[in-house]
Specification:
MetI-like fold, mainly alpha, two-stranded antiparallel sheet, globular, 294 residues, 13 helices
Length: 294
């Protein structure tokens, strides 16, 4: 028999502190943001006038905002795909029984401990066209010195590589833990049945790791849409010519550089529903392939 609370109100009393915090810091700001999105700021935000859905209409007729959609989906797709693929391969190597395995595993994790600003500064120096290490080697080997900062395509590639590197440590931790929890007897049985290494990973190990992979897919998606703001701000500030101006950075510029608070609030609502929609599709499609078993 489970324990019973002395009265129907007592459980809600215990939840009250958490409900107050959630209400004040999550739901109240959300309601205020929705309300603010129906206003337009004038005179550097000193005056607000009600415009209804005009901000949303202006957004979806704005060429720069629609371009940010394309940039965000391209950026997010590349970051998620590359970070999960590379980190899984790195986790496989880190799971091997070799001398100094603990050192290698720690070294693979440490980039995640860096702040986005520090990580962005490191890679901005590496990609620096004049004094960067990368251009030094490229010049020595094949005689080229690309301008990674002024060229839009190269700047986009630079930010993607940095975002992938920053997220590798987080993914490796979970993939490594999942690999170490795969039952060895099942893998050995597949090997005895004639499955080669690739077949064992594709048919046995990866399906057993599907809960971890699904969790990381969700977390990497959130990371690509929201947590890469610091990298972009330090490295490119959305440029050149909006080549790296993703939705979250577009929102920041409208809110804090151009004082368009109502416009920025509408963008935050759109971004929220966009990510929520992607999550629902993800849970309905990829979630069905996840197998939770002992």
């Amino acid at each position: 028999m489970g324990a019973k609370f002395p009265g129907k109100i007592y459980p809600y009393f215990l939840l009250l502190p958490s409900l107050i915090v959630i209400g004040v810091f999550i739901y109240l700001p959300m309601v205020q943001t929705i309300q603010m999105s129906t206003y337009k700021s004038l005179f550097m935000g000193l005056r607000m006038i009600y415009v209804g859905m005009e901000n949303y209409v202006d957004l979806f007729t704005s060429r720069s905002y629609l371009q940010s959609f394309i940039t965000t989906f391209s950026f997010g797709g590349l970051v998620v795909a590359l970070s999960m693929t590379v980190s899984f391969l790195m986790a496989i190597l880190a799971n091997q029984k070799v001398a100094g395995a603990r050192f290698y595993r720690t070294a693979l994790v440490w980039p995640y401990a860096l702040s986005p600003a520090v990580a962005g500064s490191i890679w901005l120096f590496i990609f620096n066209p004049s004094v960067g290490v990368l251009n030094f080697f490229l010049d020595s080997l094949i005689g080229i010195r690309p301008d990674w900062i002024s060229n839009g395509n190269l700047a986009f590639f630079m930010v993607v590589i940095t975002a992938v590197w920053k997220q590798l440590g987080y993914n490796v931790v979970f993939f490594l833990a999942a690999l170490q929890n795969v039952p060895g007897d099942i893998v050995e049985a597949a090997h005895i049945d004639g499955a080669n290494a690739l077949q064992r990973y594709w048919k046995v190990i990866i399906p057993l790791m599907s809960p971890t992979a699904f969790f990381l897919l969700t977390m990497n998606l959130i990371y690509a849409f929201f947590d890469t703001f610091g990298l972009i701000d330090v490295m490119t500030r959305g440029g050149p010519v909006d080549a790296t101006n993703v939705l979250i950075y577009h929102l920041y510029r409208d809110a804090f550089e151009f004082s368009k608070t109502g416009f920025a609030a509408a963008q935050s609502i759109i971004l929220f529903f966009l990510v929520m929609g992607i999550m629902l599709v993800q849970f309905r499609t990829a979630g069905r392939r996840v197998h939770y078993s002992n």
